[in-house]
């Protein structure tokens, strides 16, 4: 088969459906990645326009441009859009598009999950934009501190848009992260061992793990605050045993790692682009990996440095101040590795390099002011002033937007297949950089002069007038620069001349395919011998196109892809991916019913949507798998691999493992919140502790034994080619008993009596939910066994259900134990 | 997966210990600690003991990751995991040193 026929066959297999339906049903990483990027840029434009409205308002004293009501919505939505609808989706889009190419594979691990995540992002973001257009947008600050954001401070619907819209959007971040982790660990070109991973993949592995562990506290906080607003469960109301500081803990448990979640992908771009621009290889690859992992974990230990002014004891402040200064060390290691890379190379001053230099200057300045505010006495002086606003923008714009623009111009030829011809980009660069520093360098000064954040006007004679006027002029210059970047990119993408395949002479695999890349990315999958396969073998792209790698024969008509062993990169199994489907968009739409139902207080819609989601989930899972044992198949070069449906831990098991990691962090955060209220909140202890009695604990213990034993019995029977029925029945009975044990907690407490009762309701509800999910999965497994989808070799699905059952039992024992423990002595 | 764990576990243990000591400080400074019959000196002793235990755990990780039994076969993973174990040990010593240097509940 020649290269052209292979291309046509593979495009038929992997490409989207023709016409507009193709965009709605595609699950391909190229389409989803580009859709993410386009929508994120759209939100950036909206967020940027809001920023200009802010600067217009503050350009002159006592401006009548906006009233306080509108201003509050504008500055809140600017932060919300930039943090949640622009920054994270932008790098998700970049990763969804680029990561499979860099790893030398054809798609991400769970293509339908990618599409589902995108549609959740699109629908959730649309909710927020609709609120903005309708004048009922969130107005309590992007961090939504109660009591300002509770029904006491925000009785309208505005805050609900934040709580529900953002939680909806975060489903996409969790989905994308689970599959990024599984993709980096399992889906790579053969031979790509951990030490040969493209550095960007290491960063994204760290970032995805951070999202899985960083976002659940915020989702929990949003859930609790929405429950308080909707049903009067007083988690944050001091008079009923709650504490508004709990929100700050949950928010910043997410919020500080979030800064690194945004910075690390940008650092990944720098570490990828910089060596190419410097015509050398990255200095200190291992050190950079260690620094990225250190940053990823250390950044979780510094959330309280956003709360220095809340009255925390000195020792607590000292813990977090020490951790905050510590985090500068791995950041410094990275910066010095980059400087070393420049030192040993021969840097060429192309446009991506200019943006990298802008990043260096800006991010280092932002990092240094970060160390300043990590020191408690200084923070007490500058807290809630424009110094913090300026620091935040130096870190986020310097540390994220500038590197992403470097990445944009670096990968533009890969996206478009064209050579950048028009030179607007350099003008845009200077306008943005000068405008940015003109704005935010000055605002540091305003902050030091005492200008408070979030004020809707400045008073004449305050001493801040000239600074703000100049900062506003700088802001508009920057906005013109960004507009020019957009025009430059669009014009070059549309009308510039065709370019070479690898114009930068880079070594990574995303340049080993035609540009723009075909739907299947690689016509065949190469074997990799180093971190820069294209430097080892410049003819590799041609040999890939000729089908000389693995899976070069598209004769099966299926979406075939390889998995590898995590450490060594040895080929492990053959996966057949699902095809395009409307299921992701339909499921995202039905999931939206949960949030819209809560938003418009049509509570009947919530359980209805839950049933719909469960039904669609079953449909989704049912379409996978096989009714027959399949022989191992040749994948090229004499290699024969078993199908992934017949390995003990299929990709779905790994996906479940990482989703459960996020779930576990959510649960851990819930227990943390319970312990926090118990130790710190005023108006504790509650009027009465819940006495466990005998029935509940017996149901829980008996249920745990039955569920754990039953699913293992079923698993063992399946591996012997026997019927799993008895085991599944026992497991189902056990899960029902666990659910019943949790219901005893619900029936014996009143959800709105006290924060203690409300917490027990959430803990018990969580247990009921997980027992139900595991129960549904058990029933599903029984139906699959009856339908012939399981056998001694096809035990992967049983392993997935076992994982979820074990988790449900663990959280039931821990959660119910925590609920009953305080009542035991009484 | 074992190699990923070798890389991630020491710092994750630091995070767990750091959070636990911070939680312990919250408990020591809460009315519940006094209700349970303990005083502030007992609280500081408990936090110091937790700090020392966390440091010993990190030393154990460091030694284990050097030992033939637990070290990775990949030189790259061995190097990265040992570096991160040192980072975790330093982080444990540095970030928890306030348990013996500052006032506990002011």
Question: What's the helical proportion of residues of chain B?
Answer: over 70%
CATH class of the largest domain in chain A: Mainly Alpha
**Beta fraction of chain A:** under 5%
Most extensive contact: A-B, 34 and 45 residues
Q: Number of helical runs of chain A? A: 25
Order of helices and strands of chain A: HHHHHHHHHHHHHHHHHHEEHHEEHHHHH
Instruction: Decide which structural class fits the backbone of chain A.
Output: mainly alpha
Q: Could you please describe the fold and organization of this structure?
A:
The complex is a heterodimer of chains A (826) and B (106). Chain A is an all-alpha fold. Chain A has helices at 3-14, 20-25, 29-58, 68-103, 111-134, 158-186, 199-231, 244-277, 285-298, 314-326, 328-344, 351-374, 376-382, 386-416, 424-448, 465-495, 533-536, 540-545, 583-599, 605-622, 651-680, 695-719, 725-747, 755-786, 796-820; strands at 559-564, 571-577, 633-636, 639-641. Chain A has two domains: 3-18 and 30-494, Cytochrome C Oxidase, Chain A; 608-632 and 645-823, Four Helix Bundle (Hemerythrin (Met), subunit A). Chain A has a two-stranded antiparallel ribbon. Chain A has a two-stranded antiparallel sheet with strand order 3-4. In chain A, helix 6 (158-186) packs antiparallel against helix 7 (199-231). The model of chain A has no long low-confidence stretch (mean pLDDT 93). By secondary structure, chain B is mainly α. Chain B has one domain (1-101). Helices cover 79% and strands 0% of the residues of chain B. In chain B, helix 1 runs antiparallel to helix 3, helix 1 runs parallel beside helix 4 and helix 3 (40-66) packs antiparallel against helix 4 (75-95). The longest helix of chain B has 27 residues, at 2-28. The N and C termini of chain B lie far apart (44 Å). The interface between A and B is large, with 34 and 45 residues.
